[in-house]
Write a structure and sequence with these properties.
The chain is an alpha/beta fold. Helix content is 37%, strand content 18%. A five-stranded parallel β-sheet has the order 3-2-1-4-5. Strand 4, helix 4 and strand 5 form a beta-alpha-beta unit.
Length: 155
Amino acid sequence: MLPRPRKRFGQHFLTDRHYLERIVAAIGPRPGDTMVEIGPGTGILTEELARVLDQLDVVEIDRDLAATLRNRYDAAKVRVHEGDALEFDFASLPAPLRVVGNLPYNVSTPILFRMTGLAARIADCTFLLQKEVVDRMAAAPDTPDYGRLSVVAEY
């Protein structure tokens, strides 16, 4: 049974395995990649990534989910960092870093801005985002959704 999403963390868990295969294919994990997953939640994506990667780091803010992940995976294969991705020291991981995650709406924009500040250390980012966030990222000038996120995403 899946845990109930916690509203305070804006959690929404990936559950559909059909989409999971497409997401993993889009990420294209390879042995030797340095990858970190933000907000692994129940670990459905974590499981697929860990099958391919030599090692995976995950950052989970929910202490209960972090504990479940620690119990589920060998610490040599999946390192669980309990904490907020907005405060996590991504520089503690070797570059180039591949960052993935199913981001909650309420923190997706701050996380995207955080990643732009780490761009020199990051090879790529693959995020699942709500349509409204993507609309703001892809907005054209002089449209209602155009703003700071649009400018930074274009840059």
